[in-house]
Amino acid sequence: MGAILSAGCCAAQLACCFGSAACSLCCACCPTVRSSTTTRIMYTFFLILGTAISCVMLSKAVEDSIQQSIPGFSEVCDFLNLGTNCNISQVIGFLAVYRVCFSMAVFFFLLMILMINVKTSQDCRAGIHNGFWFFKLLIIVGICVGAFYIPNVEIFQQVWMYIGMVGAFLFILIQLILLVDFAHSWNSNWSAPSVFQIVSSIFHTLMICTLFFYAITLGGFIVLVLFFTKPAGCELNKFILALNLILCIVISFISVLPPIQKASPRSGLLQAAIISAYCMYLTYSALSSEPVSYHNEDGKKTVDNEQDGVVYSYSFFHFVFLLASLYIMMTLTNWYKATWASVWVKVSSSWVCFVLYLWTLIAPLCCPNREFPQ
User: Fold this and answer.
1) What is the pLDDT of residues 61-92, one digit of tens each?
2) 359 exposed, middle or buried (CB, 10 Å; 0-12, 13-18, 19+)?
3) Would you tell me how many other CB atoms lie within 10 Å of the CB of residue 355?
4) What stretch of H or E contains 302?
5) CA neighbor of 129 nearest in space, from 355, 372, 337, 313
6) What span, in angstroms and rounded, lies between the C-alpha atoms of 214 and 206?
7) Where do the domains of the chain lie?
8) What pTM was estimated for this model as a whole?
9) The pLDDT value given to residue 107
10) At what angle do helices 35-57 and 133-147 cross, to 10 degrees?
């Protein structure tokens, strides 16, 4: 009897891979979960799987193994229409990562278009979003296989690299917005009166965390000065480092001004310290992308909780995953090569971060009649 019940449970979970129902992935071992949660977990699994395959493609051991196991490699190049100058780097390595991430980006782009204006789970398109996982996996594999047949590798590489830069920049902006919101939430929760009464040492903990992030900022600045500047030359690096350090000081000063504190009581140095540390990391990432010639040579059942309305935008969800695919591609390939385009993408990201945080400070002063979350 137990075997029959187990078989029924497994069959139900297998059916959801082929149908429009969301998977709980387990039977009695998991608590009841919402369909919106399991769906996002499955898409995250797809993204992680694509990332893992991309990492494998970058492995030198994989390259050697392919060369040894495929003696007639030229025939493979002819089969894939890779041209007469085909070599192993066109099948694996950076270009393989580009192709895998291209397939993920196309997959999420198609879903983003398909899910525009979905309001509730009663929409037939919501069933596609929340199920059919087996067929979705087949679609991704099919797009990935097709990506290896793309002709004109050089053109594909150049065009997709710049598309990846734009997508990665937009994904960084989303990260910055979430980071600013996280910093405000952290400071607000830790400085709440009720929490302060319960934990008498919370103020000291808050101060230690603030000093910790400022120490990271200062230490990062010193390291960048030592490794990316020299007394004679590197004027652009000196300018970027000096400007970003000044911006760190400016946002720290503005965050404790009396008018800012009055309009936004939860603002403080902790948020400014977190933003400063992250922007210093973006500065490092930008400087490390400079061309070498410029460098210093030194379950249970799933509950449908979206019948009355979706809890998140399906279309925007896939848009974010599309950008995440491009960001992962650029990160794994180290932005493919050292170019000034990647430098300015990252430098401008750090400046946008400062602007976003400054806006959260001055917005209550500029728009006094509007309510802002504290």
Assistant:
1) 776 676 666 655 566 666 655 555 555 556 67
2) exposed
3) 11
4) strand 302-303
5) 313
6) 12
7) 176-289+337-374
8) 0.67
9) 93
10) 30
